[in-house]
Specification:
Elements (H helix, E strand, L loop, with lengths): L11 H30 L3 H7 L2 E4 L4 E3 L8 E6 L4 H17 L5 E6 L3 H10 L5 E4 L3 H8 L9 E5 L5 E6 L4 H7 L5
Parallel strand pairs: 3-4, 4-5
Antiparallel strand pairs: 1-2, 1-5, 3-6, 6-7
Length: 184
């Protein structure tokens, strides 16, 4: 017998030991995969806090962020006094109209006061939901990755409620096209 080679398994006990070893290796690999999947689906504290938020819509109704969980969501922080915000709203509206059939949602969180937002929406209606966050909305955006607190700021959540994309500044059609390739 060659000492550099593993001897062939010839006994029944050897076969059983080899099979058990393979089974335990498979179980270990499966547990490792499941743990990594669970960790990738665990929401961060900021994400959990966002889904607990509630906002007032322009009609006075309360919008619970949790009601939007379960489908991909584009969350856009904007204000009527922000020219790049106003410039990108038609793009967001077109994205929503084209993709709502595929489950996409868009929420515009106005970091603004109710009267200017209502006046703006009366002149330029949007098909997606708009809610009022006021200036505290800047803190919500910061918690989601907007470290400078600038506007516009957009966050994309997958259907599990995890942030999968962030964009500081004005959106482009290319940004929106890329969202469609993000696993939701």
């Amino acid at each position: 017998m060659n000492p550099d080679k593993t001897p062939p398994i010839t006994s029944r006990r050897g076969w059983i030991a080899a099979a058990a070893g393979l089974a335990f290796a498979g179980i270990g690999a499966g547990l490792a995969w499941r743990t990594s999947q669970r960790e990738s689906q665990t929401l961060s504290e900021a994400e959990q806090n966002f889904w607990r938020q509630q906002f007032t819509q322009t009609d006075g109704q309360t919008l619970f962020a949790s009601s939007l969980k379960g489908k991909p969501l584009v969350l856009n922080f904007w204000a009527t006094w922000c020219p790049p915000c106003i410039d990108e709203l038609p793009l967001l509206n077109a994205f929503f109209k084209e993709n709502k059939i595929n489950g996409w949602q868009v929420l515009g969180l106005a970091v603004d006061q109710a009267i200017p937002v209502k006046r703006f929406l009366a002149q330029s209606p949007l098909d997606f939901s708009v809610a009022l966050a006021g200036f505290p909305g800047i803190e919500v955006s910061r918690s989601l990755g907007n470290l400078s607190g600038s506007l516009p700021f957009t966050v994309v959540f997958n259907s599990a409620g995890k942030v999968v994309h962030r964009k500081m500044g004005r959106l482009s059609p290319d940004d929106m096209g890329a969202w469609l390739h993000i696993p939701t």
